[in-house]
Amino acid sequence: MLKNLDPALNADVLYVLRSMGHGDTLVIADTNFPSDSIARHTVFGELLRIDNVSAARAFKAVLSVLPLDTPLQPSVGRMEIMGAPDEIPAVQAEVQAEIDAAEGQSAPMYGIERFKFYDEAKKAYAVIQTGETRFYGCFLITKGVIPPASA
């Protein structure tokens, strides 16, 4: 254990989050997502895991250390439900609550059509698979910056 770090963040996840730069993207996926095969196409090239937690719990952990690129654009995309792209299932509403809490304001997610999501996920820096069992618990995050203390 380390002080001030969420215990859900393992060494591999921390390494990747630190290695990412501004504008790099990260996939946080549910257990049904083809995480391993998609991860092989990413910059990191290997699947990361935050097992036995929901998507919202994984978001809470990741957002405790990762800045979002929210000042300029929406920074979290959600996989849209096929046939109901504007519907927000409970898993996505829970993640939205974690995003808003981390940002201290409303930071709405944007929708990504399912098959486009797969294509975009292959371009990501890395994929983290969670223990989320509910459908449509798949998200694409854009990393932001931490300004200097004097800014």
Automatic annotation (TrEMBL):
It holds the Pfam family RbsD_FucU. GO terms for molecular function: D-ribose pyranase activity; fucose binding; L-fucose mutarotase activity. It comes from the Bacteria. The keyword tRNA processing does not apply. Keywords: Isomerase. It catalyses: alpha-L-fucose = beta-L-fucose; beta-D-ribopyranose = beta-D-ribofuranose. One of its GO terms (biological process) is fucose metabolic process. PANTHER family: FUCOSE MUTAROTASE (PTHR31690:SF4). This is Fucose-binding protein.
